[in-house]
Amino acid sequence: MKTYTFPEGFLWGGATAANQIEGGFGEGGKGLNIADVLPGGKERYDILLNPGFDFKVHQDKYRYPNHEAIDFYHRYKEDISLFAEMGFKVFRLSIAWTRVFPNGNELEPNEEGLAFYDRVFDELHKHGIEPVVTISHYEMPLHLVTEYGGWRNRQVVTFFERYVNAIFNRYKNTVKYWMTFNEINSGLFMPIQGLGFAIQKEEDKYQPTFQAFHHQFVASAIAVKACHEIIPEAKIGNMILFAPVYSYDSNPENVMYAYEEERLFNYFCADVQVRGEYPSYMKRYFKEHGIELDIQDGDLELIKEGTVDYIGFSYYMSRTEKKEKTGGEASEGNIIGGVKNPFLKASDWGWEIDPEGLRISLNKLYDRYEVPLFIVENGLGAYDKVEGDGSIQDDYRIDYLREHIKAVGEAIEDGAEVMGYTSWGCIDLVSASSGEFSKRYGMIYVDKQDDGSGTLERKRKKSFFWYKEVIASNGERLDYK
């Protein structure tokens, strides 16, 4: 096997989100957030994609796996010790906004919530692991959703500014790497999680969606400027969901359609956050969809001044598009749509597996922006089986990760500047899209099942030992068995 050379100081590690691992529901003064009212199972997927959600807990109808998750809130020391055993250089996690500001609009932060992350960051540093912190990761305070309408309301920018100032001042000596909004562009198809509202049936989706984006762009710029002022040595990036879009064939109409889809989904948010201005191609889009943004005095100047230091992005799949779709062609598993790609296999959940697409993504992003890139999510959701001897032989996960890391190595040789790689769900967690435990990503198995049963015992999978060797060799020993 070809040996790849990764930069010295490459940031190997794993990635999670507070709402998917912490649990600790109602403890430490934590308030309700969006994830707390999303049920587990197929109902969640329907809610995310359809209008009319009431943002309430229905204990008589649904199970809510995020309330306990994998109990990182009480077991973080055990988990961080396992991350250290794997050799993590960094651990990506998010701060739960509602642990710091339970309703989101308080004037003063909740000390118990701040102290919890003090303990987590101290534990990470004790093991030589740098935290990479996402400021807002699909866990908007529910009060800001139900009382203010989420990010469509300009007032939320003020609440967010108060939040970021609180955490930057508190953790200025313990956190060097930050990201603003997780998968910000996902609001185009799942506004509930990212933008904090559900489009109603009678409502045009375009105006509120892009007004909410504008408010997030302003908030992101405020966060970037505050981070640079309060923690000058820190780096703060954006975070997008990136999926290269392929044309189904060489028909120029399909090529143009795929190009337009990629530009809107992959580049629009990044263009604003990295280049500091709205791209020219959006003028036509806004006109054709009747979008008139309320841009206040100083907004555009602020966005120009608050550009990010690097691009963080998730990569799980590519997307294939054609302008005119016919029956049977839809790629049902790909959450971002498209048609089936005949050249790709799919995961247990129908997500098309495309390692070469990661190399393509890195090249496209670096060619366009020429800023450092950080792959902060990449992984395989799969069914895992515990063998009679207690082992989990997840060779399929090793194969997936190996091929994607090889693609990163190729992109680095191509000239892309890549900061690091954090595998998504380094420990099993609650799936964001389906609310399931059975959709396992981790290299650490957690005994928790979809019906709520389980001991929460942690077990090392075969991939745990493989990834440990990859990190120890700085990516040279991808062939380790």
UniProtKB/TrEMBL annotation:
Keywords: Glycosidase, Hydrolase. One of its GO terms (cellular component) is cytosol. The active site is at 377 (nucleophile). It comes from the Bacteria. One of its GO terms (molecular function) is beta-glucosidase activity. InterPro entries: GH, GH_1_N_CS, Glyco_hydro_1, Glyco_hydro_1_AS. Gene3D superfamilies: Glycosidases (3.20.20.80). The keyword Hydrolase applies. One of its GO terms (biological process) is carbohydrate catabolic process. The keyword Cell division does not apply. NCBIfam families: PRK09589.1 (NF007154), PRK09593.1 (NF007158), PRK09852.1 (NF007356). Belongs to the glycosyl hydrolase 1 family. This is 6-phospho-beta-glucosidase. The lineage of its organism: Bacteria, Bacillati, Bacillota, Bacilli, Bacillales.
